[in-house]
Design goal:
about 350 residues, alpha/beta, Metallo-beta-lactamase, Chain A, 2 domains, 7-stranded mixed beta sheet
Amino acid sequence: MSALTFHYRNGGIHLPQLGLWLDAAQAQTGVERVFVSHAHSDHIAAHREVILSPVTARLLRERLRGRRVEHALGFGEPAAFNGGEVPYRITLLPAGHILGSAMAFVEAEGESLLYTGDFQLRRSLAAEVCEPVRAVGTDTLIMETTFGRANYRFPPAEQVVEDILRFCRDGLARQETPVLYAYSLGKSQELLCVLGQAGLPVMLQEQAYQVTRAYEECGQRFAPYEVFDPRAAKGKVLICSPMARRAEGLQALGKVRTAIVTGWAMDPSCRYRFGTDAAFPLSDHADYPELLKFVKQVQPKRVFTLHGFAADFAESLRDLGFDARPLSEADQLTLPLFRVTS
């Protein structure tokens, strides 16, 4: 058995020889460690012992109460572990998804594996720049493929930002409150940077406000902003979670203009699904061309695709000559480093 043989289970990657999980969706309370790529809710659980970046450790404490053993590693600083049958070395690389998001470059017995987690190559105003250079020529790449179909080609970010600013300014000119729906962790902070640079006054819903304070503790700087108060919202742009669209405070705003900010805005039906006036495709995930560019940069020997349009993207890679296949959603599927067995 290869040292880097892995299993795909319940959305996470398990390397049994190393005693290591990559983004385990279910809480691991035994002796095995878990690499946590970033602090979004679908990538965290109440694990006993975790490997993560210092920023993700801070955000994890904000979002998930309880005590855990933390191995907070700086980017590009290899660390050795010996928790299973085979010792290994892990190096965290910036993923560019949200602040602190990391890829895991794992090495054991002369073999290497790069796990991306969520990532993007576009430069964000509120996250580190993705840097996969150290993993060039890796044996195995396990990559997220949320937007892994050819129709997901995002417009230039500058154009999308201009569209968002125009939307907000038009609303303010009409005495309406512009409301931007965006995830409280990551997207809200990028929008805060965009609006702050344009000189627009901003209010943040409570959850996004608390996360932004945590960002500031980690060294991120923003233009002035306020916590949401419907009595003082007139003349300001409000950023809040899509889950809060029917919150009581929003009903007190009077006339509003609403927009959802997500990569799924590329779908014509997006704004109708969310019930908003507009939808803007500003994403913190790689689009289809970026996914292809990433694989060409890394030049792995084999690729496994995860999430979103995994099968479609694996087929695209095979058409380009890469050894690529999607990871099945079935539990207990064993995928060794050099061959697949059922």
